[in-house]
Amino acid sequence: MQRKQRLSRNTAYFVPYTLWILLFVIAPVLLLIYQSFFNIDGQFTLGNYQTYFSSSTYLMMTVNSVWYAFLITLATLLISYPTAYLLNETKHPQLWLLLIIMPTWINLLLKAYAFIGIFSQAGIANQFLSFMGIGPKQLLFTKFSFIFVAAYIQIPFMVLPIYNSISELKPSYINASRDLGATNWQTFSRVIFPLTLPGVKAGIQAVFIPSLSLFMLTRLIGGNKVITLGTAIEEHFLTTMNWGMGSTIGVVLIVAMVIIMWLTGGSGKRHTRKGLTK
Amino acid sequence: MKKLFGVIVGLLVVCGLLAFGAHRLQSSTGSTGAKVLNLYTWGDYIDPSLLTKFQKETGYHVNVETFDSNEAMFTKIKQGGTSYDLTVPSDYMIEKMKAAKLLLPLDKSKLTGMQNYDPRFLNLAFDHNNRYSVPYFWGTLGIIYNDKFVKPGSIQHWQDLWEKKYKNKIMLIDSARDVMGFSLASMGKSMNTTDPATLLAAEHKLNRLAPNVKAVVADEIKMYMIQNEAAVAVDWSGEASEMLDSNSHLHYVVPSEGSNLWFDNLVIPKTAKHFKAIYAFLNFMSEPKNAAQNAEYIGYATPNKKAKALLPKAIRNDRQFYPDNRTIEHLQIYKNLSPEKVGLYNDRYLEFKMHH
Predict the structure, then answer these.
(1) Distance from CA of A219 to the nearest CA of B (A)
(2) Could you give the CA distance from residue A43 to residue A22 in angstroms, rounded to a whole number?
(3) Which residues pair with B38 in a beta bridge?
(4) ipTM over cut 0.90
(5) Phi, then psi, of B51 in degrees rounded to 5
(6) pLDDT at B3
């Protein structure tokens, strides 16, 4: 009896969050899917999906979105992994971690505007380039600056999970590997990296998925030189008012995200299992 | 049973909170006291000192809420739950709101200032006989250039933008209708065309402009032009006037072969409640002195003939913002297109953006 009571009390704790999820996560997604089956005149149709998959514009945009999300993730990973590794070696990792997380306290738009100031013709970056004798370059509205700023924004989300998995790594493994005569590279590629892979995967998920639909940055920093699906969604909801088509693109993005989750989540398990049976 | 009870109580609490929230929101926008006017307008689109003056003269307090696009305003009024008394849509949106039965006709017997307006700006296609709307401001789409980088006078026509020397120097406003529109105007076509072949040709022409296009941006264009970031931009006259105020190197040109002429007019949405205040405000804003003060503050062109006469000579005779009659004759007002046609414009425009 007592146990049962406790059980029902425990379920009561879930009520607020369950309601939240139902109202603000499940219901909107269902509405989005529902809306994607209606054309501009409000008739039920599969036409939106047909348009999407037969239009080279949308397919190109999808490829673009995935490609840029990949580049952003790669750039972030290349910076974050060594950072997380070094962080673990420092004396006060918590302090450094705080400094890395600090930029996330600042609003995304403010950061974007700050970069406009830095990259503009008269900005600090160009002043430095002129000082070095290279002369002012066009930095804003380039694909480089877009990836740079996006990576800057995403880095904390990549560093955190990687740092967590590195700090959990027992130093005795590394010592053992060195004792057994492995070179530094072998230690890294055979011991450290595989053991911190879950952190890397979590980081990739945390960065790749939001990067798929970054759209304020494509305009503010990329000057619309980079067009992703986010741009098309904004246009369909705000200008053409073709909510059906906008929802369809939204659904495609959700499906793409699920696939990424499944790829990064699933393969990890298989990998460890294979490792065990070996 | 208990669990079910808990869930029901939880749901009721959430519903109660939502209802309370909705009530609070509503009362904050439309305080129900009689002496108010709820104005729904573009950001920074009225001189605040005029609102104080209006309250002093008539006793009505004006609550201002702002929107940043015609479409956002349309959606909010259509959804209901608001209590706006006046709003300021652009020409094509007035047509659209009329069609959606979102507007209330004006009671002409209560309007005292209509004779102050320039007849050229009354009785236009989007609202015959001004049954629903009172002119507020008008303006154009044009080219802004910086004389540090461009020889003054060398840009006069849309076609000049395609010249090779402007490689990577031009900024465009991120608006399908306007970008497609100037491409159409440069080919001598109507900016309201719905012919797919013509629109495709306009897109192809824009694709040839792509090497010159530095960026397609929105409101930030103002900041960039003021900071000398780009040599040339395509934007609206109102934005241009703000830029010119902050950077004396900038100039604004309305191509004489044709461009967009736009109007923002005051209308009464069907959500209106405070009719006495509405007519007091419309008459107040029609008074030449007030309209002139507003025009000087905002920097857009006033359709109020008597108000224009009160403006300083330098503003009144500025060809950039009050173009000559010959140019005005070639300007075109956007028509409200059906959703399919708007989609057509946007698809072509999206392709151009992909290309660039």
Answers:
(1) 6
(2) 27
(3) B63
(4) no
(5) -65, -40
(6) 66
Give how far Cα B306 sits from Cα of B155, B266, B322, Å.
Answer: 33, 18, 14
**Dist CA B309 CA B301 (whole Å):** 12
pLDDT band at B339 (very low <50, low <70, confident <90, very high): confident
* pLDDT band with cut points at 50, 70 and 90 for residue B9: confident
The rounded percent of chain A whose pLDDT value lies above 70 is: 93
Name residues whose C-beta falls within 8 Å of residue A187's C-beta, 6 or more positions apart in sequence.
A174, A177, A178
Determine phi and psi for B61, rounding to 5 degrees: -90, 130
- How close, in Å, is residue A162 to chain B by CA atoms? 35
User: How many angstroms separate the CA atoms of B348 and B356, rounded?
Assistant: 12
Q: What is the pLDDT of residues A34-43, one digit of tens each?
A: 999 998 888 8
Strand, coil or helix: B103: strand
Q: How far is B317 from chain A (nearest CA, A)?
A: 34
The pLDDT, as a whole number, for residue A276 is: 37
Q: In b/e form, how buried is each residue of A83-99, taking b as 16+ CB within 10 angstroms? A: bbbebbeeeebeebbee
Flag whether residue A40 sits within 8 Å of chain B, measured between CB atoms.
yes
Q: Which residues pair with B64 in a beta bridge?
A: B39
CB contact under 8 A, A57 and B354: yes
Q: Smallest CA–CA separation between A270 and chain B, in Å?
A: 39
- Render B288-323 in DSSP notation, one character per residue: HHHHHHHHHHH-SBP-BHHHHHHS-HHHHT-TTTS-
Contact between chains at A240 and B342 (C-beta distance less than 8 A): yes
Between CA B264 and CA B46 the distance in angstroms is: 12
Find out whether A72 and A147 touch, Cβ atoms under 8 Å: yes
Contacts of B36 (CB under 8 A, 6+ apart): B30, B60, B61, B62, B63, B274, B277
* Contact list, B174 vs chain A (CB under 8 Å): 219, 224
Please judge whether A120 and B3 are an interchain contact, meaning their C-beta atoms are less than 8 angstroms apart. no
Instruction: Give the integer Cα–Cα distance in Å for B254 and B244.
Output: 14
CA–CA distance, A159 with B268 (Å, rounded to integer): 54
Q: How confident is the model at residue A273 (pLDDT cuts 50, 70, 90)?
A: very low
Using alpha carbons, list the distances in angstroms from residue B39 to B46, B89, B135.
10, 12, 15
The mean of the pLDDT values for chain A is 88
Which chain B residues are closer than 8 Å to A12 by Cβ? 3, 6
Tell me the pLDDT tens digit for each residue of A81-135: 999 999 988 999 999 999 999 999 999 889 999 999 899 888 899 999 988 888 8
Please report, for residues A107, A147, B314, the alpha-carbon distance to residue A211 in angstroms, rounded to integers and kept in the order given: 17, 10, 50
Residue of A nearest to B343 (CA): A240
Q: Which of B10, B339, B347 has its CB closest to that of A16?
A: B10
Query: In a mutagenesis test of the B interface, which of A240, A241, A242, A245 is the best target, namely the one with the most B β-carbons within 10 Å?
Result: A240
Which of A40, A60, A116 faces B340 most closely, judged by CB atoms?
Answer: A40
A136 to chain B: nearest residue by CA?
B229
Distance CA(B236)–CA(B254), nearest Å, equals 10
Check residue B27 and give its pLDDT.
55
pLDDT band at A3 (very low <50, low <70, confident <90, very high): low
Whose tokens are 């109507």? That residue is: B190
